[in-house]
Amino acid sequence: MKRKNISEKSNNFHENDAGVSSGNPKSRQPAEIRGRVTGLSENQITNISRNHKTFSGISTDENEEPQPAKRRRVSIVYKYVKRISNSEYECNIIRCTVDSNANIKRHLANVHGLDDVKPKSLSLTTNIQMDPFRKSKLDEAAIRCIIVDRRPFGDFRKHSMSKSLFFV
What is the pLDDT of residues 74-100, one digit of tens each? Predict the structure, then answer.
């Protein structure tokens, strides 16, 4: 009885070698016929059916729709300057030359007072007026912290510290 089972298994194995797949109903045709239809070799078909993965001849790059080319963002600085070379700019307002894009932004903001070239972080800050009595109390508290707790002077120049003192 055992020998018969072994021989049946070997017959099934040889059928699979011949290209007859016993997996899903669609793949019951011989592998050579499927290979001609799909353009795949026998090994590729058996690897695909074993792994239960689908094969796509289209790579992921080709599969995606083409994206339009992104436009380069033009700096607002070019409204006020003319580019002389890769590293030199000339101010259209007073005709002076500046070496880099960052320096020309600084020049336009400091010399000509142009707010649209300033970084957003600088343009959003506002000066908050504080009454003199409250300011003197905060100054005394800061001096006490520096002397008694031996804190460095720079602690109170930090943004987070000055913000916390504002709410005290």
Answer: 778 888 888 888 888 888 888 888 887
What are the tens digits of pLDDT across the range 43-55? 666 665 555 545 5
Same-domain pairing of 85 and 41: no
Radius of gyration of the chain (CA): 38
Crossing angle between the packed helical segments 42-51 and 31-38, to the nearest 10 degrees: 100
Q: Are residues 11 and 46 in the same domain?
A: yes
pLDDT reported for residue 23: 47
In a domain, 67, yes or no: no
pTM confidence score: 0.33
d(CA 163, CA 11): 83
Q: Which domain holds residue 41?
A: 2-56
H helix intervals, 64-113: 101-110
Tell whether 64 is covered by a domain. no
